[in-house]
Amino acid sequence: MTSPLFDTEQINTLIRTRRSTFIPQFAPGRVIPDSTVWQLLENANWAPSHKQTEPWRFTVFTGVGLEKLAVFQADLYEKTAGPAYKAGKHGNLRNNPPQCSHVIAIAMKRTEPRLPEIEEIEAVACAVQNLHLSAHAYGLGGYWSSGGITYTEEAKAFFGLGPEDRLLGFFQLGYIDVPSAPGHRGPIAEKVRWVSE
Predict the structure, then answer these.
(1) What value does the mean pLDDT take over residues 164-173?
(2) How far apart, in whole angstroms, are the C-alpha atoms of residue 107 and residue 105?
(3) Longest CA–CA separation in the chain, Å
(4) Where are the beta strands (DSSP E) in the chain?
(5) By the 8 A CB rule, do 176 and 141 touch?
(6) Is 59 exposed, middle or buried (0-12, 13-18, 19+ CB in 10 A)?
(7) Coil/strand/helix, residue 80
(8) d(CA 129, CA 189)
(9) pLDDT at position 3, please?
(10) Of 65, 48, 67, 25, which is closest to residue 177 (Cα–Cα)?
(11) Contact 139, 26 (CB under 8 A)
(12) Residues 148, 169: Cα–Cα separation, whole Å
């Protein structure tokens, strides 16, 4: 039997205790050092991708940039929501970003048209999982949100995206003030078919 390369119990614990941490749970006013955020992004950059396309793209907002994001997304939502407009949603889009330390816009850059688009989206999801696990390892809170302006075509230019690219959401980051409750998963045996004969 081969010896593990890393402490498997630490890895198991890291994966199984990762939780989404939402803005009301963040410590108000505490700002994560940019150098730490760069470490999270570096780990995200090591996700797998078919044909090594590395399709993930991130736009990081912090400081005054959070206000810029807030104004942009609230204004765009107001212009494009039509009859579905909700004042509460508009308020959240305007008020939530400045309550974070950093907000990272998550995008998929289309560079290899021969690959199915879903494979590129899946690669970005792997990068975000690396990002989220890394945040947890650093004792930070975060969550991937995909509401608001995420799938709005008019938003793409603001994030430097072309027509074939996709905005896939936002990762909100902050120090944890109120921890999330422990998670629960159903038995893995109910989700696996094992074929050995």
Answers:
(1) 98
(2) 7
(3) 62
(4) 56-61, 102-108, 140-145, 166-175
(5) yes
(6) middle
(7) helix
(8) 23
(9) 87
(10) 25
(11) no
(12) 9
